[in-house]
Design brief:
This protein has a single domain, classed as Porin, CATH 2.40.160.10. It is 16% helix and 43% strand. It is built from 4 helices and 22 strands. The N terminus is likely disordered.
Length: 505
């Protein structure tokens, strides 16, 4: 088999000699030029891409700047609309829109840090104004006992005072109250103040003179204190008393003899994470005494030490609990200048328990009470009668024959209150409350019908709350007073019916 040679078949032909070589060389040259052009083109594309990215960034900056300018122009035009419209166009409406009003409100009136408060413009102080208007119609079939059902003021049957005021009716709003509170932030925590007034301040003449002019008594300071950190300074409810465990009565005095005192003090409080608080206070001392010379509810001219109180309380969804104690340094200086001092302690315990619901949780119904014992003196209200609860009795002879201070006796008080509150509906509730107080008077004190040895009261009410800030109600009350045995009087009772309302603000 012959193999055909193709490489030299036309080697001898003149014109065709070298053509394949030239073509190859041309192809190589073109390939080289193409490669060089591609490289050059790639470089140009990279430069172009970089320039485009730079221009895009500049464009974004310009657009952002233009947007801010447009917003600023819009804000200025909104805040300052033209006073004169362009020719042929209607004048713009200058009434602020709802959104503008909200903006202005947010700027000038801001919600404060305490409930119902607002920030005082130009400050960081929250200010609240509140209180209530208390208006009641009171009917006393037995005897007019005043704006409060102070059963200790009851006079004996047959007395002229009782005869003159039997079957009396009157309106009262003297215990209406105005309260102003503030809160200001500080490195030590909020600095708060509380200042409250009511109009139950008795002045000489009282109802006899002022009723003819303005039918009211004078304004009196109820609270005036400030707090910072753990400290309270000023006039406030005593650290000894138990407000949270006091039953809700329509009458302002509440159950018989329940401790209720406001006085200047210095208090320190330590809160705990479990809802408890431990507090101590130094309070204004007031040594009240009675003597055999007829001095009633007298006050010593000087007291060596302030009253000391201590309290622990705890609150939770189950209710409230408190235990407290007080210690008084009672002092008396006789007519010879001899001074005698007595240590007079007292204790109180109270609780309110919320009634559990079937299935868990607690209902609005609650029950509770308080109990107290000691020579409490001024920590008790005036429902022991016009003489008041005197912690100390002094046997110093008679006004005609004074013998100085020859005998002293502390007069301890034992009392308590029980209550149950039932919610008929979310707007209708009732409270049944019972109060009892007994004071051990010194046997050497002269007979005085103003002295009450024992007081008892029962309150039953029905209170309707049509809206959150209004309470309308009716209450019936019964009370009994046991007179000092040496007076010859036994027990006397009185009744009261109250109808009215309390408007909170």
């Amino acid at each position: 088999m012959k193999i055909r040679r193709i490489s030299s078949g036309h080697a001898g032909r003149g014109p065709a000699k070298g053509t394949p070589f030239r073509l190859s060389m041309l192809c190589c040259a073109l390939a080289g030029l193409t490669a060089m052009s591609a490289v050059a083109h790639a470089d140009e594309l990279g430069d172009l891409k970089t320039q485009i990215q730079a221009l895009s960034a500049q464009l974004n900056q310009l657009e952002a700047s233009q947007k801010k300018t447009n917003e600023a122009v819009k804000a200025v035009s909104t805040a300052y609309p033209p006073l004169v419209s362009a020719p042929g166009k209607q004048a713009p409406d200058l009434t602020p829109t709802r959104a503008e009003k909200q903006m202005l409100d947010a700027e000038y009136v801001r919600r404060g840090t305490i409930p119902g408060s607002f920030i005082v413009p130009g400050t960081n102080t929250s200010l609240s104004v509140g209180g209530f208007v208390n208006f009641q119609g009171i009917y006393d079939p037995t005897e007019n006992l005043g704006p409060k059902f102070s059963i200790g003021n009851l006079d004996p049957t047959g007395s002229s005072a009782r005869k003159q005021s039997q079957g009396s009716f009157h309106f009262q709003d003297k215990v209406s109250r105005l309260v102003v509170g503030t809160s200001t932030p500080s490195p030590y925590g909020p600095i708060t103040t509380n200042f409250g007034l009511d109009f139950y301040g008795y002045v000489p003449g009282g109802d006899n003179n002022q009723a003819l002019q303005n039918n009211s008594w004078g304004a009196r300071i109820v609270t005036a204190y400030g707090t910072i950190g753990h400290f309270l300074v000023g006039m406030a409810n005593s650290n000894f008393i138990d407000d949270p465990d006091t039953p809700e009565t329509f009458d302002n005095a509440g159950p018989a003899g329940i401790p209720a005192e406001r006085l200047p003090q210095l208090r320190w409080t330590k809160p705990f994470s479990n809802g408890g608080n431990l507090s101590f206070s130094l309070e204004n001392p007031q040594t009240g005494y009675q003597d055999t010379q007829g001095n009633i509810e007298a006050w010593t001219k000087s007291n060596t030490l302030p009253d000391f109180t201590a309290k622990y309380e705890r609150e939770g969804p189950w209710g409230h609990f408190q235990v407290s104690g007080e210690a008084q340094d009672l002092g008396y200086t006789d007519q010879n200048g001899a001074r005698t001092r007595f240590f007079a302690p007292g204790a109180l315990i109270g609780a309110t328990i919320n009634v559990p619901k079937i299935g868990g949780g607690y209902s609005e119904d609650n029950f509770g009470g308080q109990a107290w014992y000691g020579a409490l003196g001024h920590y008790l209200p005036d429902d022991f009668g016009a003489n008041g609860p005197s912690a100390l009795a002094v046997n110093n002879g008679t006004a005609a024959n004074p013998t100085g201070a020859t005998q002293f006796e502390l007069q301890p008080v034992m009392g308590g209150t029980l209550f149950y509150q039932h919610w008929w509906t979310s707007k209708l509730r009732s409270t049944l409350a019972f109060g009892y107080n007994h004071q051990r008077l010194a046997a050497f004190l002269p007979a005085d019908a103003n002295n009450a040895v024992t007081t008892k009261t029962v309150h039953l009410n029905l209170i309707y709350r049509p809206i959150k800030t209004v309470d309308l109600g009716v209450e019936v009350a019964w009370g009994q007073k046991t007179f000092q045995a040496s007076t010859g009087y036994g027990k006397e009772s009185a009744r009261r019916i109250e109808v009215g309302g309390i408007w909170h603000f």
